[in-house]
Design goal:
Length: about 130
C-alpha cells in the first residue's frame, strides 16, 4: 500500500510503501518518548520525498550516527535515518495522512539501545515482506 504523509504545516511531504497492516515500534528512549514517534522502518527504496527538502533541518546527539530530521517551520519529525538501519528510513506512523487498516504497536526498549538495536536490523531488508 502507498501511504502519503507530511509534517504538521505541510512543508514536508512524502510517500512510503508499506503493508496495509503495520507493526510499529514505540521506543522509550529520551528523544522518541518526548516526541511521541511511532517507528515504521522501511528500505530507502520504499520511501520518496515529494517536497520540502529545503524545509528539513537535522539534529544529532550521542554518537551522531542517526540523522533526526525535523521541519524548520513547524518542528515536526516525520521521518529520519535511524542508527539501527542506516540503509533505511524510519517514518513516524503518526505523520501518515491515512492510518493503516490495522496497526500493532510493539514496545521497544530504547533506553537500553545497545542491547536491543540488533532486533531492528531486519526492518530495512529489501526482501522483507
Amino acid at each position: 500500500m502507498l501511504y502519503c504523509g507530511s509534517c504538521h504545516c505541510g512543508a514536508i511531504a512524502f510517500e512510503v510503501e508499506a503493508p496495509d497492516t503495520i507493526v510499529a515500534q514505540d521506543c522509550n528512549c529520551s528523544i522518541c518518548a518526548k516526541a511521541g514517534f511511532l517507528h515504521l522502518i522501511v528500505p530507502k527504496s520504499k520511501f520518496r520525498l515529494l517536497r520540502g527538502a529545503d524545509a528539513i533541518t537535522t539534529y544529532a546527539f550521542n554518537t551522531g550516527a542517526a540523522s533526526h530530521t525535523f521541519c524548520k517551520v513547524c518542528g515536526i519529525k516525520p521521518f529520519y535515518t535511524p542508527r539501527s538501519n542506516p540503509d533505511g528510513i524510519d517514518v513516524n506512523v503518526r505523520c501518515l495522512d491515512t492510518q493503516p487498516a490495522r496497526l500493532t504497536i510493539e514496545p521497544f526498549d530504547g533506553q537500553n539501545w545497545e542491547a536491543n538495536a540488533a532486533s531492528l536490523s531486519h526492518l530495512s531488508d529489501e526482501d522483507r515482506g
